[in-house]
Amino acid sequence: MDFPVVAVLAATLTIATPLVFGALGALLGERTGVLNLGIEGTLYAGAFIGFLVAARTGSLALATLAAVVAGALAGALMALLAVTLGVNQHVAGIGITLLLVAACDFTNRQLFGGGQQTVTEKFGRLFAGGGIVAQYPMTFVAFLVLAPAVWWVLRSTGAGLRLTAVGENPEAADTAGISVARTRWTALVVGGALMGLGGSFLTLSVLGTFTLDIVSGRGWICIALVIFGRWKVVPVVLGALLFGLFDALQLQLAITPAFGSIPNELLIALPYLVVIAALAVRGRGVRYPGAYLTAYRRA
Amino acid sequence: MPSMSSTQQTAGRRRRAGSARPGLVAGIAVSALVLAACGGTTGEESGGSSSSADDGTISVFGAFATPLEEPWDGAIHAALTAAADDGEIEYQHVDDLGTADEMERALRDIIATEDPDVIIGDAFAAEEAVREVAAEFPDTAFAFGSGGAEQAPNFSVFDNWLQDPAYLAGMLAGGLTKTGTIGVVGAMPIPEVNRIVNAFTAGAQEQNPAARVTVSFINSFFDPATAKQAAEAAIAGGADVLFAERDGVIAAAEENKLPVFGMMVDQQEQAPEYVVSSLIWDMRPTVDAVVGAVADGSYQASNLAEYSFMKNKGSSLAPINTGTAFPIPAELTAKVEERQAAILDGSVVTPVDENEPAGSTTVGE
Fold first, then answer.
1. What structural domains and CATH numbers belong to chain B?
2. Which of B68, B213, B222, B360 to probe by mutation at the A interface, max A CB count within 10 Å?
3. Is the CB of A131 inside 8 Å of chain B's CB atoms?
4. Is residue A136 part of a domain?
5. Residue of chain B whose Cα is closest to the Cα of A131
6. The complex's ipTM?
7. What's the pTM value of the predicted model, to 2 decimals?
């Protein structure tokens, strides 16, 4: 059997898609100085709310919109806690993740509990049978629309510069007339919306169903990817692709006879080992945004 | 009679969650923890009568390590709920007791406040703790999912012995594959998964001696997106029939228009044109055996494995789908039905093999 290179590359893009949404969403907040550990819960909420609306209305457009709104609201909650109230960012973020995961599980049990899993409409693959480009619409959005757009906004627009200014030196930004609070709120709400969209990829594109634990730590991988990418769009996207590649590779190698003697556990750990190794190499001497993890109060 | 209500349960969990993160000021974050505590636990009461002592109905308490949405505990819960609906038992439950510590405390709580006749649950992750509590309360019957042996006088064990339907599904898969490769996606190489995968493989190879079966483990009980990617990898590796030991695989089969076999409950609804059949675990015979023995005073610790066997109606192959997008040869169905009859009348016993499928990779080339 020839090794299915094209299939592995296609799987790489699919696996990386929710990571690109999530990591770019996290990147926006972190560039303003706010680490949003609500990401895991926000992905979860996007996945569940998207599924819920798809199950109730049958409309994928509405479901996608609902996931975006749910993510934006989760981002707004993070902004309320971390920006307006100045709560410790770690505590606020983890609290939001716990809240959202539990609220979704609870609602899921109330509405869909017991027996058969509910299956909804889901996006089909475009260019089915087309090898690497046989992907869900959201994959094209992630790589061809979102990533270039975020890159351009951060690099070439006033909004992007204000974002970075607030993250590097909020006092200076404030003095220059930039509202630190408004900038951070905007970044967190937009970032949350992206996370919600990324979560909905799992239910509305990949599976068409919702199960507990559907996000399975992908949010935490996004957090690592942002640090790996040093808060820059291109390296973050490349990091997501790297993780996706090794995940796709290990799934394929596990059933390839020539690699049968490698312990399965080692193969499963491979993508994580690669990310950790990459972090260890690239993470050294990393320069964090100047106001990272710091609430801003006028002196 | 006041029962262990959901408020008591959640109050207990709320204390635990709260104490883990003391001094949390932000009101919303606190409510997050409260909700987190409630999330996994409903613990509502079902069953007809209000008191077990008055009318002699056996009271059963379910104590589950995972959320009920997990298919394994879901199957136990479904059987207990059905028994309660039939008026056979009075049933309460608590779930998501993820650690040995939580399980032990819940069991002690349950016995102290409710003193049920029977406690049913799963012990895999909390084997020692559960056995310890059982030894301390010999008057309560314990029946737990476990990989170990029974423990006198009151601790019985059961497990999902699905090798019979797995073998039959394997025969169907062997008959349906055109490429000669069948893809299995399972959780992790543990005995209760291995014996199902191995029986499936043996069935496939009886029907089609040249068949290759690729086995992927995702090392998680819940990661359907990865399970789907594993199925896609199997398809890229040549598989044209899939076995969904885990959730997520059916979506891959439907997208690629391939036959697939479901697990634990009849999953035909999930992809009506592609799910050929499913392996079904019915815990009702096990429940009935325990409850019956407790009711007539004959209960003692035993291995309840056989109550999950097909010949005792503890497991079955779901009706073979007649509306598939691909033809299922009549002679294949007939052969499977013939084997099923032989298993049911006891003339054939499906071998049990709990070894890890060879290298977690391709078996039988």
1. 58-158 (3.40.50.2300), 163-282+316-363 (3.40.50.2300)
2. B360
3. no
4. yes
5. B236
6. 0.92
7. 0.88
